[in-house]
Amino acid sequence: MLFFENDYGYGAHPKVLEYLAQTNMEPVSGYGNDKFTASAAEKIKAAADCPDAQVYFLTGGTQTNMVVIDTLLRPYEGVVASSCGHVNTHEAGAIESTGHKVLTVPHKNGKLDADDLREYVQTFYADASHDHMVFPGMVYISHPSEYGTLYTKNELERLSAVCREFSMPLFLDGARLGYGLTADTDVTLADIAKLTDVFYIGGTKCGALCGEAVVFTHGNMPKQFVTMVKRRGAMIAKGRLNALQFDALFTDGLYEKICAPAVKLAIKLRDGLKAKGYRFALESPTNQQFIIVENSRLPELQSKVVYSFIEKYDAEHTVIRLATSWATTEEQVDELLSIL
Amino acid sequence: MLFFENDYGYGAHPKVLEYLAQTNMEPVSGYGNDKFTASAAEKIKAAADCPDAQVYFLTGGTQTNMVVIDTLLRPYEGVVASSCGHVNTHEAGAIESTGHKVLTVPHKNGKLDADDLREYVQTFYADASHDHMVFPGMVYISHPSEYGTLYTKNELERLSAVCREFSMPLFLDGARLGYGLTADTDVTLADIAKLTDVFYIGGTKCGALCGEAVVFTHGNMPKQFVTMVKRRGAMIAKGRLNALQFDALFTDGLYEKICAPAVKLAIKLRDGLKAKGYRFALESPTNQQFIIVENSRLPELQSKVVYSFIEKYDAEHTVIRLATSWATTEEQVDELLSIL
Amino acid sequence: MLFFENDYGYGAHPKVLEYLAQTNMEPVSGYGNDKFTASAAEKIKAAADCPDAQVYFLTGGTQTNMVVIDTLLRPYEGVVASSCGHVNTHEAGAIESTGHKVLTVPHKNGKLDADDLREYVQTFYADASHDHMVFPGMVYISHPSEYGTLYTKNELERLSAVCREFSMPLFLDGARLGYGLTADTDVTLADIAKLTDVFYIGGTKCGALCGEAVVFTHGNMPKQFVTMVKRRGAMIAKGRLNALQFDALFTDGLYEKICAPAVKLAIKLRDGLKAKGYRFALESPTNQQFIIVENSRLPELQSKVVYSFIEKYDAEHTVIRLATSWATTEEQVDELLSIL
Amino acid sequence: MLFFENDYGYGAHPKVLEYLAQTNMEPVSGYGNDKFTASAAEKIKAAADCPDAQVYFLTGGTQTNMVVIDTLLRPYEGVVASSCGHVNTHEAGAIESTGHKVLTVPHKNGKLDADDLREYVQTFYADASHDHMVFPGMVYISHPSEYGTLYTKNELERLSAVCREFSMPLFLDGARLGYGLTADTDVTLADIAKLTDVFYIGGTKCGALCGEAVVFTHGNMPKQFVTMVKRRGAMIAKGRLNALQFDALFTDGLYEKICAPAVKLAIKLRDGLKAKGYRFALESPTNQQFIIVENSRLPELQSKVVYSFIEKYDAEHTVIRLATSWATTEEQVDELLSIL
């Protein structure tokens, strides 16, 4: 059975596991007060060229979005996101569970447009009764987006400018950042560190067993952040677990080295399917491909490939997602192409 | 440097790591919908002799307490705990962050007394204005307690009876359950499953990298529990991570096999220190020992042993904690005894 | 200066004030345990022909929406509302402050359409990942709507049917119910009681100093509702205050008697303005009229009339609201017509 | 039937009602943007001699405590209160519903002792793991206390000093402030304004139908306070209602003029009962008297007087509360004394 269901179906990249095993019997203090955490943070700051940054390791993506947004917003503020933003759709109301509203702007190709954002904020402040409304307090984007699309450097710069104009921190969800950085893009990790106020580097979907590295890019970690992390049940006793994995992933560029092939294979798959006449829900340059399949093809497909159902396209077609990961092999892609 | 600071300073028990490595390249679905999760749950239900139980794997202890308490309480209810209960003292207000009050009863030897509990609840219902007060909605105990002490089977039975009398679910926090089950005790895992409504088996402090196994003992998992777990940011994409570790720990009794020696070594340490004239803050039958040390001894001690500061005892003495774990060796205990 | 800014600019209807004065020196117990509360509840149940209903008096509209929605939803649920629903736009995130998401469906003429609602809910349950999403747990509508429009009896019946099909309580916000019941409509108070699960009768905007009467239509008041009201700071010590006003308003049909003239005057105003060639943002049959005015006319208007700015219509026009109330006189409307 | 159950059993002081009637037909803007609100605020600032203060009118006591505490605390902080503090006991968990813990210190005679407070805070900061605990972020006291007792000026000064030392705002709940200011005390309204950071002047229990006036004593109202008030459902549309009552109460010293007789009558009652040999649960200098009555006396008493049950004293005695108010007459007290 071929596995293209998602990018979190396997364990960890072998080098990550090796490093866990190698350091296993070194005792260290808990809760992130250990040398592995310090080392991983330094490597990330170096890789992102942001020496004044502060790095904190959390365990999962929804948790990270919840903690970052909750700790950055004032009580009377909400977070602006595109209508398809993960925080708005598939986090079971985690943001609202912390008392904050997700303020939505219709997405364009999975992304938040800077002009749409400016208009939203200007309309808000122009409203005579905005004291009775939720203030736009920060902005959330995901890169790659939920549809696999990427912001260009110019798009990020324009979003960043709007955010700074209205004093709204810009937060970039990088759950799949490895597959974004290694795609056909003009955006580097250093660009992200420069243009956002906080972002996270996804581990779970990019080679780790778990773990997301939150980067406050300019010494702007909220006061008593650790206490607020603990308060949300998001602190783990063995802080080493998340940190060690990033320490491995940011040694010798492993993070990008293992994500790059996944993107190449996704592009090979995309181009192969295009050649066969498949249509796509939208054009994705990263490891997730959203294709439109005739319903009549699905039973056979299901017997050979694990994929994700996304949505009904029309009465006779369905959108499915095929995802590659660091664990995907060229043979698997070739076999998938031969089946489809 | 000797390490007796806590029971979460090392990585995972080698057999746990081995199992992670061995299964690493088998792809499975995410979020707990995988065969490893199913297998681990079955093994736990067998070990606890509770075939109708439902098992869910979470990542950390505070998270587990927060999720279980939040999902079991009605909005107008709080959780009753002893004054030294972890949820009341060292979770940064995680319970309150979900909108619930922790209702406290003074502890006795680190434990909640059944008679004290009954009196608390009776006084509440006798109060003419109890509609303006937080209702006692469930009861939280930890076993071993924060001070390493254990409930006897009779004490658990009496607590359980009060809880059932007043329709309050009884929740047992087993962060260190392995060290409780393998101490000098008349309480078995099956007793706990029979006498409580929900409990968790601690992984993080008992041989895993992370992970706590929540057991709803009689099919009483709250409706849409997974959605509420997700809503609190407590669901991890690679559900396999937590489950695989418990699958290993509950194969061939590994969980108790690796905790038992830690307890034995703690008792050896306790008895050795008693023989040397040391006083203890209280009598603990498990892997945590709380000793009273002259302040003048601390500088030398710190140069040779990592321990935990607990509290000032008096002007000239300090209470420190020495903890053993599955990773502690007899040589380390002997060396510690020779130092102290 | 003419006052058409809103329907809460004056004090209370004189008969309401009189009743407060008349009963002022009769001591009663607090928190709603008094004969006035009991009497007002009975009168409301009679007026709405719902003998099994439970009535509770709260103080303000946002508070009422917050308390009703928070106490009816389960933790994993959100409330479905039209995109222009008051709970979604002008309550400063009160619903989210209780941890719940407002799930929006685009409005049609200020209203939630039953077919749109059914499609929303069906799409939700058809989504393979809906366990990771906020469940639609109840439905909120306002009648009159935020734009002054009214549901027909048939529209309410169809909404009610969808709600019952999917076990979602239907909640009707009647902040301006008096102006809805006395407009050109086929919907009676008894219809509302029959077709909804909970609704509230607005006092603040319909002749009272404050106060909203929540009606759980079929004995479905949530368990320990008073405790949850208290928990949200929504209980007042002198429960008599809210109750006495409703006791007066529901004596001899005062509530409708004082609202009916306001609606008539609003229609007179509407028809008069139409005759003068004014355009309307939408057609409203109740006491709020939304007219489109040339920006150049506004300075003079502001010097003679207090009105509400609603929004920019285009570069040269603005939408303003003119509201009548129980306190508006025919002379005032005539004078306004002569000015406009 | 004599009424000594509480101080909120009657309507409003007649002068308050008169003022409501007199201003009833003057239309003003809503939500506190009106001349009555401005006038009342100025009168309060003058009475408290705090020209830089900001005044906001809310509706009830629990609501006020909830809003003030929620808006002043940071997310990782809790409020310190005495164990008998209203926020800890009889507000149904309103503080916790906003996500904050109430941190308790045992009370002394109903009050929080400055030395106990200092020790609590010092112990907190001395704890090595205080990052995992709820930070003491502000201090709550009530004056008069829940038991009717009063802080001396010196006690307030010492509490204020501790609060300033540790940067914790001091909040004084003055639900019954009128009865505190007019008792045998060396504390003036100006003292309170000088020594606290925020306090509220109780209206509901001191002559108003509803309403509490929150005073931020030195321009320290939290940013966007109105939005946060709205978010908690605590803003009323007719802001005039609360404001007008305080406008009346702070005209010509009415507030103290009507509370002083209530205190005098309570002292007459106290002294009369002492002369008859009654014992008191504690010595109260204000309008609430807590007496110990033989259970055998209660049935007869209940047939003649409405009083409040407080608690069982011992097997044969009960503590009851007798409260006077601005509405109590000397005849009523004489009759009560003749009965008891």
TrEMBL record, chains A, B, C, D:
GO molecular function, one term: lyase activity
Key words of the record: Aminotransferase, Pyridoxal phosphate, Transferase
Keyword Transferase: yes
InterPro entries documented for this protein: ArAA_b-elim_lyase/Thr_aldolase, PyrdxlP-dep_Trfase, PyrdxlP-dep_Trfase_major, PyrdxlP-dep_Trfase_small
GO terms under biological process: amino acid metabolic process
Residue span(s) of domain Aromatic amino acid beta-eliminating lyase/threonine aldolase: 18-237
Cofactor(s) required for function per UniProt: pyridoxal 5'-phosphate
Pfam families assigned to the protein according to its UniProt record, in alphabetical order: Beta_elim_lyase
Family statement drawn from the similarity comment of this UniProt entry: Belongs to the threonine aldolase family.
Protein name: Aminotransferase class I/II-fold pyridoxal phosphate-dependent enzyme
The organism of origin for this protein: Agathobaculum butyriciproducens
